[in-house]
Amino acid sequence: MRVDRVLASFFAAAKRRATALGPRYVDLWTVLERNSVGGKRFRPRMVVAAYEALGGRDEEACALVGAAFELLHTALIVHDDVIDRDFSRRGIPNVSGSYRDTATTAGIASPAAEHRGMSAALIAGDLALTGASRLLLDVSCTHEVRSGLLELLDEAIFASAGGELLDVELALAPEVPTVQEVLDMERAKTAVYSFEAPLMAGAMLAGADPALIDALEEFGREVGIAYQIVDDLLGVFGTESATGKTTLGDLREGKRTVLIAAAATTDDWFAIQPFIGKADLTPDEADHVRAKLEVCGARAQAERLVDEHTERALAVLDRDVVPADLRVVLRPVVDTVLERDR
Amino acid sequence: MRVDRVLASFFAAAKRRATALGPRYVDLWTVLERNSVGGKRFRPRMVVAAYEALGGRDEEACALVGAAFELLHTALIVHDDVIDRDFSRRGIPNVSGSYRDTATTAGIASPAAEHRGMSAALIAGDLALTGASRLLLDVSCTHEVRSGLLELLDEAIFASAGGELLDVELALAPEVPTVQEVLDMERAKTAVYSFEAPLMAGAMLAGADPALIDALEEFGREVGIAYQIVDDLLGVFGTESATGKTTLGDLREGKRTVLIAAAATTDDWFAIQPFIGKADLTPDEADHVRAKLEVCGARAQAERLVDEHTERALAVLDRDVVPADLRVVLRPVVDTVLERDR
Description:
Two copies of one chain form a homodimer.
Chain A: H1 2-18, H2 23-34, H3 42-53, H4 59-83, E1 88-89, E2 92-93, H5 95-105, H6 110-137, H7 143-172, H8 179-205, H9 210-237, H10 240-243, H11 249-252, H12 258-263, H13 269-272, H14 283-295, H15 298-317, H16 324-339
Antiparallel strand pairs in A: 1-2
C-alpha cells in the first residue's frame, strides 16, 4: 500500500534528523515506527475509498492524507496505553513495554523501569501527533484544501481527547453511565478519527461538495458507533481466536461498555455487578456474567443498537447527494463492521 | 498584552466546542487555561521583539504566532510535569494536581487519584500541542510563510521531545553525563522552542532574509544555552525568594545539570556524589554540597560557560546582517538572562 511507503519515508527522515541528538533519539523513532506498522491501515483505507470513488487521481496526495490519519491513530493508541497502563498491544510490547523491558534488563527496578516506559511513550505519542499534521503540509493541493484538512485533523484530535477524558471519568464515577453516555464517549473517542474525519478528508481532497462531505460525516458517525458497539460485544462474547484478545479483559477491568450500561438498568444487575471490575475473574464467573447479560436483555439491546446505526448509515448512502460509485465502495464498509460480530 | 487576548479567545472557542461533550470536557479546558495564564509570556515576547524590530505591522498576526509558542510551552510543561510526577508548579496545583485533588476530595484513593491527574494532564497536553498549530492556521500571511511557521513549530517540537527523552535517559544512566551531553540536552529541550524558534518565527513573519533568520537561530541557541546554565546555577545557588523554588530540589532529585556534570570530573566528586539524589537532603548537607561545588571549580566552570555563550550571542548581534533596530531590542534579552544570575 502506498501509505506504507509514505510512512516508511516519514520515519526514515525523522531518524535522519534524530541522529543530531544521538542514538537514543533514533531508538525512540525506531520503536515508534515499529508500533505504527502491522496495523490494518483502516483509516487510510477510508481516505482512499472516498477519494478514489469521487474521481481523485493524485495517489501520492491521497497517501499522505491517509498516512496522517494512520499516524494520528498511532499517537492515540500510544497515549491510550499510557493512560490504561498497558505495556503490550496485540501480544507484543508497545512503546512503554519496549522501554520498560530494556530498563529491566539493564537492572533498573520495576517502578522506575515502568515509569521510563511511560515517559518514552508519552514523548513518542507527542511526536506521532505532530507528525500527522506535518504530513498534511506535504500534500500537493490548494491552500484552502490544506487548511480544510488541517482543521479536520484538529477536529478529530479535539473529539478523541474529549472521548478519552470521558472514558477516564466514566470509569472512576461511582454510578454506571447511561447507554447514551457510553455511546457519546465512544463516538468521540474513536468514531470521529477512525471513520468520520478520514472519509471527509478523502472527499475534501477530491474536491467534493460540502453537502456530500456532511453526508459522509453522518455516515461515518453511524458506522463508527455501530463499530464501537460491536467492539463492546466482541470484548465479552467474541472468540479469542478471532479478536486476538481475551474475552475476560473488558470484564476484569470493569470497562464501561454499552453492554454494562444496558445491564445496569435491569433487575439482574445485582447478580452481575459483583463481577464487573473483579481483577481475578475466573472463566466460570465470566460465563455466569455472559449468561446474565443475555437473560437481562443487555446483549439483545446492544445488538439492536448495532442494527439501528447500520441501517441509518445505509440510509445516508441512499441519498441523492451520494454518487453511485461512492455508494458501491462504502456499502462493504458497513458489511465489514457487521461481519466482525456475526 | 495582545497575546493574552488571542489566548483568551482561543480558550473561549475551545470551551464552546467542548460543551458538545458535556461539562467534564469544559472543565478540562478551564483547568488547561488556568495553567497557561500567569506566565511571563517569554516566548511571545521573543516573537514580538523580532517582528516589530524588523518593521512588522500586523499585530494580530504576530500575536497569533506568539500565542502558538505560548501554547507549545504550556503543552511541554504539562507533559514534563507528568514525566516528573509533579503535581504543582510555582506553588499551585498543575493540571495533574487539580485532577488528583478533586478526585481525592471525592473519596478516590491516592494511586487512582494520582493516575486520574496524570491521565487528564496527558490529554490536556495533547490539546495544547494541537492548539499551537491550530493558531498558526489563523495567521493572515502567504501560504509560504505559513508553511515556514508550521515547520518551525514542528522543528521546535521535534527538538523538545528529543531533549525530554535525553533528560529521562541521562537521569537513569549509571554514569554522570558529560558537560557537553547536558548542554546538548538542555539546548534541545528548552533553548530551541524558547529562543531559537520564536525569534525565527517573528523574523519569518516580518519577511526577513534567510541569512538573518539563520543568524537569529544562532543567537537564540547561544542565549538559550546561557539561560539554561544560569537556571542550573540558580537551582543550587539561587535565593528562594528570587527564583520561587527551593534550592534543595535539583540536588534532592539528582538532576543532571551542568554543575553536576562538571563536578563529576573532579577529585571532589567522591564527597559530593553521596548527596546527589538524596531525597531527604538537609539544608546543612546542601550547604556542604554548595561549598564543594565551589571548591572543585564546578561553579566557576558553569559561570565561565555562561560568559562564553553570552559573548557568542552578542557577537552574532554585531554581524552586518543584523539591522541596528533589532540589535537594540535583543541586547537587553542577553542582559535579562545574565541578571537572573548576578
